[in-house]
Amino acid sequence: MRLTLINVVIAVVAAIAFAALNAAYLVWAERRGAARIQRRPGPNINGPFGLLQPPLDGIKLMAKQLTIPGGADKAMFIAAPILAMFPAIMSFVTIPFSDTIVAKNMNVGILMIFAFASMGGMSLVFAGWSSRNKYAMMSSVRAVSQAVAYEIPMLITTITVVMITGSMDLMEIVRQQSGSILHWNIFPVLGNSHNLLMPFSFLIFFTCTLAETNRAPFDLGEAESELVAGFHTEYGSMGFGLFFMGEYANIVVGSCLTTILFLGGWNCPFGLFPGVWWFILKLYLLIGTFIWIRWTFPRTTIYGLLNLSWKILIPLSLFNLLFTAGLLKVF
Amino acid sequence: MVAYFTEIFNGLLSLFIGMGITFKEFFKPTVTVAYPYETLTMCARYRGHIELVPDEEGNPKCVVCGLCEKACPSDCISLAGEKPEGGKKKELTKYNLDFTRCSLCGSCVESCSFGAIDFSKEYNLASTRKEDFIFNLLQRLEEKKK
Amino acid sequence: MNAPILLQPDETFILNVGPQHPATHGVLRVKMEMSGEYIVNAETVIGYIHRMHEKMGELKTYPQFLMNLSRMDYLGALGYSHCHVLVVEKASGIVVPERAEYIRAIMVELNRIASHLFWFGAFVMDLGGFSPLMYALQDREHILDMLEAVTGSRLTYCYFRFGGLYNDIDDDFIAAARRFIPRMRKSLKKYKALVTGNIIFRKRLEGIAPLTPEMCRKYGASSAVARGSGINFDVRRNEPYSVYPEFDFDIPVYHECDSLARYMVRMDEIEQSLRIVEQGLDKLPGGPIMPDKKPKIIKPPAGDYYQAVETARGSFGVRLVSDGGKNPYRLKLRSPTYSNMHLFDEACRGMMIMDALAFMGSLDLVIPEIDR
């Protein structure tokens, strides 16, 4: 694909549209899912199945006044919600949905996604620090330690996958997993590493995705029973809306990455008809699990979270890295 | 070392058990009532605000003894009556209930030995004005009569 | 524009938790002196919802004050009414028919289950899990429906009368209660698997906020707060009243002293209350629900009377000083949460804020009951 101006515009518009649409409708899905789990109907008044709820919520948020608290750092305060949304959208540029649908494939795709993902943590820090609110500040301090603690096991696990495939190109990673479920990185019996510990790697990666996207049970940043609303306590109007959408856009990116790295991207579990539909199916199953987890578990503590990362996830992921390296040497 | 792994294993297991429970709940039918669209009928003993009970002719049974007024802990009830010329019994001329202060204790209904007041089954009471909750029960009874 | 905050490394800051805060479940304000996430000092500030119930008790006649008791603790209202009617009956020598006393016990125990269920849900919500609250409310709804069918109200009951009851229970109620017991037992199993066994939940409560028995005694704590610290005290057993001696039930006591112990005590109490309801329904005698002889105007002879009961939140007492008139001379209400809450200031020092708020949840505070 040639990098022409039209291509870039189309890709950017498609990425923004996909991210925004997902963010809006995942809010709906989350509310419906939570309601089903709690045996309520959920939003069902506006439109069929309440499908008009997200646009109406958006209109409501936009109609509200954006207040900036006195004493807040204005520039940072305004920058923070944009910073929450923007890295997620940028990441979509390099995510391949099938072997043809990709805006711009790069041979360092993973690197780019992680570079942008680490910026997501910055938005929390900016928001919490600039709000001049004690609750928000405590939340931003938590967010820093959380982001640091969970990027490490996530990266180590990614390196394990990169070692198996020998490439940082997301397309290449999926191509090497082509075939049935036994070729995928989650359970690579027939893959080139034969590493049976990979399901645990998948769990580690998934846990880190939960933590990186600030989802329950790791939603310490916005822990509403302690910190009121955490970093977005002082945000109203679309500032709040952007944080909200950013959270869901990040979930989509995280789930896309999990699908590509472990679940064989657009490959079918039985090796039949590979295509974008498999990718979408896996993506939404993962997102469904995110929602399912959120409405099942209580929140962890900040030290519980750090203990989990430093005492369990990092040693185990390191061990798996070494184990995989050994296996690759043997086979 | 063994304890370390058993803790991880048991922890993971407990998480999966919890997820299994919410998964089962996901497919059960909803239990809520979509309130403004569907309403429940109140049970027979439901205690709403009080209402005057009419006799066969539709006139209040009340004999203006004033016991309910005295029994009320919050001075919600104010009533008045006068003897019509030539009549033997007092007739009710005013019966006001200040529902803003009522705590639905039912002391008034209990104190009435003539069965002249009873609980209504009304619960859709919402207004932005305080005056809407000062009920003229006599007027309500007359409206009902028509 | 205000000057930016510049904190020195050893400097603390004041965090106002409440009066409007999601964790305080009402209008309780906690002034916390924080060093980062750690609490250096905390001070609970109460009085935001003070309604002078004690003074109202002096100004109103005895029957007029009946409905105030259920406004104190809106979750376990019947236990409080029970205490009030017991002390007035004791003072004026009214004999309650046996059937009425049995029904009272059944109702109070059902109300206790409802209260514990709500606490369970709210407590897990304090810890960040939302769904258990909804499941608990579904079970509670059955109790409220049953109580509504008999008493006429769902939350702030005015059901007990001096000498008896306002309404008799019917066969529908008995059938509904019998249906409810196995249902609740099934739900308890669900809660055990979903919440009690959950590793995240256990990690948040185990060993957190240890309260020594000495400290509980010092502050006069009761209910699960004391029983979770190994103090085997329950008014129903230690100072028996009503028909409780007739029932066979256990007092759950845990010796771990931590938040989990307090949680476990309450969950076990639900099971024990179910046992009492079951036995009460079996033993329910016939007869009237109001005594034949009852003074028309209640005027207890001059004297000083006290009665304590075990409510859902601990030992509640009413001290009644009568001068022989239509109104009490003094009506002192000893509310259990008031004592339980004051533990918080001392116990939460050095804790992290999230542990402290989980600890506050485990105390089962109902703010209108503290402020009265």
Summary?
The complex is a heterotrimer of chains A (about 325), B (about 150) and C (about 375). Chain B is about 30% helix and about 15% strand. With about 150 residues, chain B is an alpha+beta fold.
Structure in words:
The complex is a heterotrimer of chains A (331), B (146) and C (372). Chain A is mainly alpha-helical and 331 residues long. Chain A has one domain. Chain A is built from eleven helices and no strands. Chain A has helices at 5-37, 53-63, 74-92, 109-130, 134-165, 170-176, 198-212, 224-227, 237-262, 276-294, 302-330. In chain A, helix 1 packs across helix 2 (53-63) and helix 1 crosses helix 9. The two termini of chain A are 36 Å apart. The model of chain A has no long low-confidence stretch (mean pLDDT 82). Chain B folds into two domains: 1-31; 50-145, Alpha-Beta Plaits (2-Layer Sandwich), CATH 3.30.70. Chain B has helices spanning 2-26, 67-71, 107-111, 137-145, and strands spanning 50-52, 77-82, 91-98, 117-119, 134-136. In chain B, the strands form two sheets. Chain B has a three-stranded antiparallel β-sheet. A two-stranded antiparallel sheet of chain B has the order 1-4. Chain B is elongated and about 100 Å long. Chain C has a single domain (13-367), classed as Cytochrome-c3 Hydrogenase, chain B (Orthogonal Bundle), CATH 1.10.645.10. Chain C contains 15 helices and eight strands. Chain A binds chain C through residues 34, 37-40, 70-71, 132, 134-135, 138, 141-142, 216-217, 219, 223-226, 228, 295-304, and chain C through 1-5, 13, 15, 21-23, 34, 36-37, 124-131, 134-135, 138, 194-195, 198, 200-201, 203-204, 352-355, 357.
The CATH class designation of chain C is: Mainly Alpha
The helix/strand order of chain B is HEHEEHEEH
Mean pLDDT of chain B: 82
Q: What's the arrangement of strands in the largest beta sheet of chain B?
A: 2-3-5
Question: What percent strand of chain C?
Answer: 5-15%
Please tally the β strands of chain B and state the result.
5
Task: State the name of the first-level CATH class of the largest domain in chain B.
Answer: Alpha Beta
Main sheet of chain B, how many strands, which sense, barrel?
Answer: 3 strands, antiparallel
Residue-averaged pLDDT of chain C: 86
Strands of the widest sheet of chain C, in order across it, are 1-2-3
Helix content of chain C: 40-55%
Q: What is the number of independent domains of chain B?
A: 2
- Supply the number of helical segments of chain B: 4
Low-confidence stretches of chain B: none
What's the order of the H and E elements of chain C? EEEHHHHHHEEHHHHHHEEEHHH
